[in-house]
Amino acid sequence: MPEKLTVDLHSIFRSDRDIDKAVRNVLFRAAGEKVPLVEIIPGKGSGKLKSRVLAILKQPHLKKLYRRVEVAPGNDGMVLVHLT
């Protein structure tokens, strides 16, 4: 079992559908494999992609999968999702 899963959104930042799909897929995979941590990398940029990721994570069916969400300490370009 991996310690964490990571998804980098830099290559798909233009497609809201692909972003949504990538975030949902990594969360469902982590929950299914009992992985305790997911790293989502939206990058620093203007913050629009990070805001989009945080909005996706607030959806009720996804909130059931994790315990908490935080921006990585010392790295504004990474969102950490704790499943356990």
Automatic annotation (TrEMBL):
Signal peptide start-end: none
Pfam families, A to Z: Smr
Stretches assigned to the Smr domain: 1-84
InterPro entries reported for this sequence: Smr_dom, Smr_dom_sf
Superkingdom as given in the UniProt entry: Bacteria
Transmembrane segments: none
Protein name, entry field: Smr/MutS family protein
Source organism per UniProt: Amycolatopsis minnesotensis
